[in-house]
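**Sequence with structure:**
===
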Amino acid sequence: MAWTREYKNKYQREWRAKNLEKNREQNRKNLKNFREKNPGYNAEHTRNWRKKNPEKASETNKKNLKAYRIRHRNNPIYRMQQSMRSALCAALSGRRKAQPTMDIIGCTVEELFEHLESCPSWESWMTRENYGKNGWDVDHIIAISKWSKNCPLQFALCWDKSNLQPLEHIANIKKGGR
């Protein structure tokens, strides 16, 4: 029997239906490889799509905002993590005084910068001025997701300065929750 296009498509559909987990795993690997080889593609693609589809983009934003608000309202752990991230970012950027945040971290903003600058992952191009989205981020050595969400001691250890290090923004995104 010849491998016609229809037969091949039918065979592939049947194989994928029988091997869902294998297929998902292969798709994940392919997507990860593509993202590593093309780091700016997704942002550029999204930006272009939003320009071409402003109504759909607005709709999507509204849905995402609604989901965020529901999760923020109903999940105190998520709300605390988001608040800590925002407070730490604001404190390091000098946008506001963040004494309670720095009490949790266990030092002042100046001491935290000194700690980050003394870390082995600190690179010569990193400065206090290029901290943030287009430069470097504060990374958790042991990811937030690895700590128990219900234990106050683990929360304090997670946000302690000894668990924080500077990391290039793209590398921090690639690292994810690992």
User: Anything to note?
Assistant: The chain has nine helices and two strands. The chain has two domains: 5-37, 80-175. The mean pLDDT is 82. Residues 54-74 form the longest helix (21 residues).
